[in-house]
Amino acid sequence: MDGKRSNHTVYNVNYHFVWCPKYRHAILEPIEDSLEASFRDVCDEYGYEILSLHISPDHVHLFLSAHPKHAPSKIARTVKSITAREMWERHEPYLEEYLWGGGFWERSYYIGTAGQVSSEAIERYIERTEHV
Known about the structure:
It is built from three helices and six strands. It has 132 residues and is α+β, with helices and mostly antiparallel strands. The strands form two sheets. Strands 4-5-3-6 form a four-stranded antiparallel β-sheet, sandwiched between helices. Strand 1 and strand 2 form a beta hairpin. Helix 1 packs antiparallel against helix 2.
């Protein structure tokens, strides 16, 4: 049986998240490196394994694996809130030109489950849908 192991669990739980910055502004390219570092730091800290991360100018695809004790809504809330705070701390002069009234990410997001799907398959999916 393939999967990751913890003390009493063998699991293969993978999620595909997509979300956008406020007002779907195409603002992510200039801050892509620090945003990627922030995603990686948060996921490392909380025990989420990034399988694939793609940052477009106006949205993010995050494919990750997490222990089943982590609810997908909690994962999204955690990653979005911490990365938003860090981006404001690092790039406030740039962001305040585009994001009036605070906030960084839209409140909404997409989530799909992908049990045994490979990260390569997700990458192909992202490439096919990138023009949307």
